[in-house]
Write a structure and sequence with these properties.
alpha+beta, Immunoglobulin-like, 2 domains, four-stranded antiparallel sheet, three-stranded antiparallel sheet, 4 helices, 22% strand, elongated, disordered N terminus
Length: 181
Amino acid sequence: MAESLLPGEAPVSLNEARGWLRLGATVDDAVVAGLVRAATNICEAFIGQWLIVRPAEEIWPIGGGTARLKVRPVIGVDGVALLVPDGGETPLTEEDYRVVLDRDGSARVTVEPTGTADRLRISYRAGIAEGANGVPEAIRQGIVRMTQHLHDARDNAGAAPPAAIAALWQPWRRLTLGGGQ
């Protein structure tokens, strides 16, 4: 499953982060870009949702149950395929599987076991916004502040993130109880 941001899809631009950090020169751009990616990953882990829509793929065992997709908010399932142990793959039509999108952005895919297939490949898209401008400002501000925190804490690795960042992200936080399918 895709876990990291695709190039160019950060919710906070390099110029925004550099401006917040009061860095005029572009000498540290690679470092700042890395901090923005890290802050974005921290944010997504904290709120339990992807920020910018991007593709995801998961492989699930077929057990007669339902596959609960791991990433939220799911905006659409693009395809489901049956995988057989010898490496073969059979794409399913939309009539062969059932998708339920829940109000919290999670999704479930149900397929009845058929033939020798033992796994499913589920391709889908997930994210809060189509682009950086669609990400809520409080989330973006938290990412900028987390970028600053990471930049300032590079010499003091034990420093805890400020509570103000959690307060900015808290309204979008989605927690799940347990894991499993």
